[in-house]
Amino acid sequence: MVEEAKLIGTLKEYFGYDSFRPQQREIIKAVFEGRDNLVIMPTGGGKSICFQLPAILLPGITIVISPLIALMKDQVDGLTANGISAAFLNSSQKEQEQQEIFRKIEKNEIKLLYVAPESLQYVDAVFSAGNISLIAIDEAHCISSWGHDFRPAYTQLGYLKNRHPETPVIALTATADKATRQDICDQLNIPHATHHLSSFDRKNLSLEVRPGTKKFEQILAFLKGRKSESGIIYCLSRKNTEELATKLQEKGYKAEAYHAGLSHNERIQIQEDFINDSNDIICATIAFGMGIDKSNVRWVIHYNMPKNLEGYYQEIGRAGRDGLPSSTLLFHSYADVVQLQKFAEGSGNAEIQLAKLERMKQYSEALSCRRRILLSYFGEIISEDCGNCDVCKNPPEFFDGTILAQKALSTVYRLKEQEPISMVIDVLRGAQNAQVLEKGYQGLSTYGIASDVSWRDWQQYIIQLINQGYLEIAFHDQNKIRLTSLAKNVLFEQEKVSLADVTQAELKKQPVVAE
Ligand code: ADP
Ligand code: ZN
């Protein structure tokens, strides 16, 4: 058993901190008890210390499996600078370099040894050469194809516990959903691991979702008064990152694009410029951020919708690691949803991916406290609304939307459930475009019965009707809108429908558009 004073002393001496964060102490003690542990802690929560501090005090070597080969050198340099003897092994090294490391392993001169999951072949040699005290598996969710970051090389890691059952394992991740958690433990062969779950509530992050129209104008308005603050804008495509960065530069902002298509050196340079505050804004694909330790990111914008809430949570979590108030903004658009649906359908496990996307969509369209929805996704229930999301700050007003609902549902009915949202709206609004006229829809009795409601408002109302279960989208049939069994209550039995007043909510939300 390890004494408290020793733990605190080591924390201070090697990391410069006076006290542990919530959970760190318990986790570290459990490591010293020789148990297997699964640590679920949000990004920025302080997972590294949970294995680095034990590594310093344990008699032998701690092997760290980490997916980020590109960052291993930085991690090792950082530890070395703190007086902790660390090294890494990967296939890019020269034979001689590796021999030198093995010599140190034999002499027990290394405390932390980073190994990429692709380089597991070294591990047996490490075990025979040295005294191994602990195996740490960072970003452990990469083992699960249910997670959002699946790395095939991780699936070999179950081998470690099979081969070396006496060595305790600590697996760490910021992904919390229950199915993935179980999958991690199953695949790593640590069925009896103690699970340590930290709160996912990051109260200092404000949450906001806005309709994805005139996004660039909205971004400029958002950036007003945020000059020279650090922020990240996540985009779905490389092209978007570049276009946005260019447009921001033209407006006088220090912005750079970051994506996997850039060379290694370019990416390193961009990361460094951001970390040193010589650049303010990164327009990035999701390739950016993993392992980036920058505490003063003041805001994160999602230019496009992420494909699930884990990814979203992880990405917004890069803001405000220093605990100071920070803002997040997500642009929600139906076009993104459709595109993400296509990706999900083409993926290996379409059913799960589509279900996750559906949760993401519900979050974006929420008319109740967003933080509650987000945290409940991670299995955490908060008893009160957060007061720091756009819905809490600006709760929607509901009105009797029965007539609007009847108009929409009967239009879907007249269209024989054969058309997507856009056509339903065109008919409701009496649009004169070629598609409408070719199909002869101008002759329908509902044609133009609601031209006083704007196109965008209709889109919002129809999404609400979908969320309330009156309509559904046939994803496998060209996204045609269909009536559900609930719809007939509205059409034939006078059932009342409440709708959130999107015109009001939108008016309140629309920023002043900057020139
Ligand atoms: P994670 O891996 O969970 O995303 P890190 O281990 O990178 O988080 O830690 C996030 C930040 O918090 C780092 O800057 C780290 O130095 C800092 N940190 C970790 N533990 C403590 C602590 N006990 N006191 C103060 N800062 C801490
Ligand atoms: Zn809220």
Structural account:
This protein is an alpha/beta fold and 515 residues long. Helix content is 42%, strand content 15%. It is built from 22 helices and 18 strands. It has a 7-stranded parallel beta sheet with strand order 3-4-2-5-6-1-7, sandwiched between helices. Strands 8, 9, 10, 11, 12, 13 and 14 form a 7-stranded parallel beta sheet that branches. A hairpin with a 5-residue loop joins strand 16 and strand 17 (480-483). The longest helix has 15 residues, at 350-364. It is elongated and about 85 Å long. The termini are far apart. Residues 511-515 have low confidence and may be disordered. The chain binds adenosine-5'-diphosphate and zinc ion. Zinc ion binds at residues 369-371, 385-386, 389, 391-392.
Q: Quaternary state, please? A: single chain
Global morphology? elongated
**What is the number of E strands?**
18
End-to-end Cα distance, whole Å, is: 64 Å
Residues in helices, as a percent range:
40-55%
Strand content: 5-15%
Query: Can you list the ligands bound to this structure?
Result: adenosine-5'-diphosphate, zinc ion
Spans where pLDDT lies below 50 across 5 or more residues: 511-515
Our Rg estimate from Cα atoms comes to 26 Å
Number of helices: 22
State the main characteristics.
single chain; about 525 residues; alpha/beta; seven-stranded parallel β-sheet; 18 strands; disordered C terminus; binds adenosine-5'-diphosphate; binds zinc ion
